[in-house]
Write a structure and sequence with these properties.
With 551 residues, the chain is an alpha/beta fold. The protein is built from 25 helices and nine strands. α11 runs antiparallel to α12 and α15 crosses α17. 44% of the residues are buried.
C-alpha cells in the first residue's frame, strides 16, 4: 500500500468521524484554559498555566520572547552564567516569529498553535489506524482508543505514598501527570509535544512504506521529518534510530540475509537528519551550559508496577497481542514492525539514558494498535463460543461498549480534565499573578538589558524569563545551572537581614543587578532591602518593589 492509496481508502464517513472527533478534542482540551482565564481573581492576570507540569511552560515562552526581542539564537536565560547565543530551537523560534509579526502574546500564540496542530495530529492517528486495519469498524475503534485511551493510575493513586520524589524521579502514575504518557494529555499540554508525536508516527510509517516499496521518496520524506523532529526535540533520536535498526536486524534474521535495500533507506534518513544530530552532539561536547543542563535533566521512569498501572488494560492487551504474534505461523511485517516498536521503545524507558521518561512519547501508539488487535482476537474467540443471540445482545451493544470503554480505558484522562477545573476554581496563587507583580515585570523589561541578572524567589524566577526575556538567578530545576545550590543561596539571601558583607560578595560574584522583592520574597524571611546601602529602590507599586544593586 502507498500513502496515496492509504489516504484514498478513508471514506467520507470516516472523514466525518475525524472532523467531529477533532472538534470535540479541541473543545475539551481548550475549555480548562478558558475556564482558568474566566476564574482570574480581581487585580490578577492569568499565567496560562494549569495543573500539568507548570514549571516548563515559561521555558518555552522564554525562547519565544527572545525571538520577539530580535534574537534568532537564544540563551538559557534561566541561569546567570556568561554564555554565547547558541540555542536554536526551530519550533519555538517559529512561534516567537509569529508572535512578533502578529503582535500577540506568547500565551495566545502557544494556545493558537496547540489548536492548529490538533487536526494534523488527529489525522496522523487515523492514518496509522488505517494502515493496520482494513476493516472500517476496527479502524474506528482503534482510532477512538488512540484519541482517548489512558491507564488506571487514578485508581491506584490513593494507595501510593506521596513521599515519592527523588531528584528527577516521580514514582506516581504517569497517566496523571506526564504529558508524554498518552495522546490526550499530549494534546492538552503543548504544541511541541503534539508535533513530536505526529512526526514520530509519520517518520516510522514512511520508513515502513520505503522498505515495502523500495521507493526512496518515502525515506527522503522520513529523513526530512526526522531532521525537523530532532532539531526541536532531540530526545527522540534514540527512539527513531533504535526502532528502525532493530526492525532491520529482526527481518534480516527472518529472511536469513542482509537487507541492503532496508539499510539504504535507513542511511538516507540518518544522512538527511544528521545536521540536527551533529548540532546537539557538538553542543553536548563543547558547550558548558548544555553539558550541565543535560546532567541535570534527570527524568527517570517510575517503577515497573507503576508504569503498568499507568497504561492499565492497554498494556495487558498488548502483551497478549505480542504473544499471539510471536506464536503465530502467519506473522507479517506489519506485526513485526509494531512488536519491535513497542518492545524497543518500552525497553528505552529503563535504558541508562538520564531522560528515560521522555522516551515514552509515542509509546502509546503501537501499544494501542496491538491492544485493539488483541480485542479483535478475543472477540473472535467469544463469538465462536457463545450463542449468536447472546453475542449480539452483549457484544454488539454500542452503548454497553461505550460504558465499558469509559470505565476501563479512560478514567485517568477524565480525572485530568476535571482536575484542571477544580484547580482553577480554587484559584491557586501559582496560576495567577497580581497585577502589581506584572507591573514590576514590565518595568524590568523597559529598564534593564538582556545581560542583567535578576534575583527573586523561585516562583517569580520561573515566570520572569517567559514574560520579559530577562535573566534570573534561579527559576527552573533543569535550566538553572547548579539549581540545588542556587536555590539554597536564594533562600539564604532572603531569609535573614544580616550578613551584609557576604551578601554583597554573593551579588557581585553572581553578576546580579536587580532584586525583585514582592510578597513572595518577603514570605521567605525577614530580609529588608530598604535598609541596605548597597541596594537602591527603583520601582515600587504597593507591596512589589525592585532594587538595583549598587556595585
Amino acid at each position: 500500500m502507498t500513502t496515496k492509496n492509504l489516504i484514498k481508502s478513508i471514506t467520507a464517513s470516516e472523514w466525518k468521524l475525524i472532523i467531529w472527533t477533532t472538534v470535540f478534542i479541541i473543545i475539551i482540551t481548550t475549555a480548562p484554559y478558558i475556564y482558568g482565564w474566566f476564574q482570574t481573581p480581581t487585580d490578577h492576570t492569568y499565567t496560562g498555566l494549569h495543573s500539568l507540569t507548570p514549571g516548563d511552560m515559561h521555558v518555552y515562552f522564554s525562547y519565544m520572547e527572545q525571538v520577539k526581542q530580535g534574537y534568532l539564537l537564544s540563551e538559557d536565560i534561566y541561569t546567570s552564567e556568561p554564555q554565547s547565543r547558541v540555542i536554536l530551537n526551530g519550533f519555538w523560534s517559529s512561534l516567537g516569529l509569529f508572535s512578533l509579526i502578529t503582535k500577540t502574546s506568547n500565551y495566545f500564540t502557544f494556545q493558537l498553535f496547540r489548536i492548529i496542530l490538533i487536526p494534523l495530529f488527529i489525522i496522523s492517528l487515523y492514518l496509522i489506524s488505517s494502515w493496520f486495519w482494513q476493516k472500517k469498524i476496527w479502524r474506528k475503534i482503534c482510532f477512538i482508543f488512540l484519541c482517548f485511551g489512558s491507564g488506571l493510575g487514578v485508581i491506584i493513586y490513593p494507595f501510593l505514598s506521596s513521599e515519592t520524589y527523588i531528584k528527577g524521579y516521580y514514582n506516581l502514575p504517569l497517566d496523571m501527570w506526564a504529558p508524554e504518557n498518552n495522546n490526550l494529555l499530549t494534546i492538552l499540554q503543548s504544541p511541541h509535544l503534539i508535533s513530536a508525536t505526529a512526526l514520530i508516527i509519520l517518520i516510522l510509517l514512511l520508513f515502513y512504506f520505503a522498505t515495502e516499496s523500495n521507493k526512496t521518496s518515502y525515506s527522503l520524506g522520513a529523513g526530512i521529518l526526522s531532521l525537523s523532529l530532532f532539531q526541536f526535540h532531540p530526545f527522540h533520536i534514540p527512539t527513531i534510530l533504535a526502532v528502525i535498526s532493530i526492525y532491520i536486524i529482526i527481518l534480516s534474521i527472518k529472511y536469513n540475509k542482509i537487507l541492503y535495500s532496508y539499510l539504504k533507506h535507513f542511511l538516507i534518513i540518518i544522512a538527511i537528519s544528521s545536521p540536527s544530530i551533529l548540532y546537539y552532539s557538538v553542543l553536548e561536547k563543547y558547550d558548558f551550559i548544555t553539558q550541565i543542563r543535560t546532567y541535570q535533566n534527570i527524568c527517570l521512569t517510575p517503577s515497573l508496577l507503576v508504569v503498568f498501572f499507568s497504561y492499565g488494560f492497554l498494556i495487558l492487551l498488548s502483551i497478549y497481542a505480542l504473544y499471539k504474534i510471536i506464536s503465530s505461523s502467519r506473522i507479517n511485517n506489519k506485526h513485526i514492525f509494531l512488536a519491535v516498536w513497542l518492545i524497543v521503545q518500552f525497553s528505552l524507558l529503563y535504558s541508562p539514558l538520564p531522560f528515560q521518561r521522555r522516551l515514552m512519547q509515542g509509546l502509546q501508539i503501537p501499544m494501542i494498535i496491538l491492544a485493539v488487535y488483541a480485542i479483535y482476537h478475543l472477540n473472535l474467540i467469544i463469538k465462536s463460543n457463545i450463542k449468536p443471540k447472546k453475542y449480539n445482545y452483549y457484544f454488539k451493544n454500542k452503548y454497553l461498549a461505550i460504558i465499558i470503554f469509559i470505565i476501563f480505558f479512560t478514567p485517568s484522562n477524565l480525572y485530568n480534565l476535571t482536575r484542571d477545573i477544580v484547580v482553577f476554581k480554587k484559584t491557586y496563587p501559582q496560576l495567577y499573578i497580581h497585577n502589581d507583580i506584572i507591573a514590576g515585570y514590565n518595568w524590568l523589561k523597559q529598564n534593564t538589558s538582556p545581560d542583567d541578572v535578576i534575583l527573586s524567589d523561585l516562583y517569580n524566577g520561573n515566570l520572569i524569563p517567559g514574560h520579559i526575556g530577562r535573566k534570573i538567578f534561579v527559576g527552573h530545576g533543569v535550566e538553572t545551572l547548579f539549581f540545588e545550590s542556587k536555590l539554597g543561596l536564594m533562600a539564604w539571601f532572603f531569609s535573614t537581614n544580616n550578613y551584609d558583607l557576604k551578601k554583597q560578595i554573593f551579588l557581585r560574584q553572581n553578576s546580579i543587578n536587580y532584586i525583585f522583592f514582592s510578597p513572595n520574597e518577603k514570605g521567605i524571611g525577614d530580609f529588608n532591602p530598604s535598609s541596605k546601602k548597597y541596594l537602591k529602590l527603583t520601582f515600587k507599586q504597593n507591596e512589589t518593589e525592585i532594587y538595583q544593586v549598587i556595585k
